[in-house]
Amino acid sequence: MKFTKKEVAKTIDHTCLNPAGRIADIQKLCEEAAIYGFASVAIGPDFVKYASKKLEGTDVKVDVAVGFPLGYNTTATKVFETKEAIDNGATEVDMVANLVAVKDKRWDKVKDDINQLADVCGDITLKVIFETCYLKKDEIIKLAEICLEIEGVDYIKTSTGFGPEGATMENVKLMKEIVGNKKMVKAAGGIKTLDDYKSMINAGASRIGSSSGLEILAEIDNNIV
Predict the structure, then answer these.
(1) Does the keyword Cell membrane apply (predicted)?
(2) Is the pLDDT of residue 221 over 80?
């Protein structure tokens, strides 16, 4: 299958979650996303209202980070954060699963946390971030199985980009094997080049989160395989 530059852009969440980021960075991010046709801008909650207005009239989604970067906020906090972001114009939500609960194998708590956000999101795209660098294989499998049980989860996602390791082909393949065609997989963290991009797509990812989207597109001349 061949991907044009336009098709590649449509699979990338153009990301700016830099803790030192400024409104000028978000302005630039939104302008680039509109010009190149990225799937979304992935940003922190405080920038959602601005980005929503900036991208009005475009096809670019506003993708908000919830529970970043560790996921151990209370569920009530995540619910409020999500509701406020949606009210401010967010059209996609990337939430971090409660990693502490995962490590403690408090699976009911993990499921309830995700379920409540799925209820808030409704028809809005929900991606659940595993932060795979902190998880063992059996924990990744169990978390993916829980997400399979929740109708409102659209994607399972590898990483926040804030951990010691980002997406790996091994974890993307594992996650895709578990969810099959019932959910999609988003790879994020450390994806900086066209080769990185192709590796993740070939491993089973449908969406890519990257702050290097422009650099990836710049490597494409005409078509890629």
Answers:
(1) no
(2) no
Q: What is the pLDDT of residues 90-136, one digit of tens each?
A: 999 999 999 999 999 999 999 999 999 999 999 999 999 999 999 99
Q: Which of 94, 113, 154, 196 is catalytic?
A: 94
In the chain, domain spans? 3-220
| Torsion sign across C-alpha atoms 30, 36, 37, 38 | negative
Taken in order 120, 173, 168, 100, is the CA torsion positive or negative? positive
Give me the amino acid identity at 220.
Answer: I
The residue count for the chain: 225
186 catalytic per annotation? yes
HEC string for the chain: CCEEHHHHHCCEEEECCCCCCCHHHHHHHHHHHHHHCCCEEEECHHHHHHHHHHCCCCCCEEEEEECCCCCCCCHHHHHHHHHHHHHCCCCEEEEECCHHHHHCCCHHHHHHHHHHHHHHHCCCEEEEECCHHHCCHHHHHHHHHHHHHCCCCCEEECCCCCCCCCCCHHHHHHHHHHHCCCCEEEEECCCCCHHHHHHHHHHCCCEEEECCHHHHHHCCCCEEC
Is position 54 annotated as part of the catalytic site? no
Question: Which of 157, 176, 183, 196 is flagged as catalytic?
Answer: 157
* Domain boundaries 3-220, CATH class: alpha beta
Q: Which of 111, 183, 186, 196 is catalytic?
A: 186
Give the predicted TM-score (pTM) of the model. 0.96
Q: Is 94 noted as a catalytic residue in this protein? A: yes
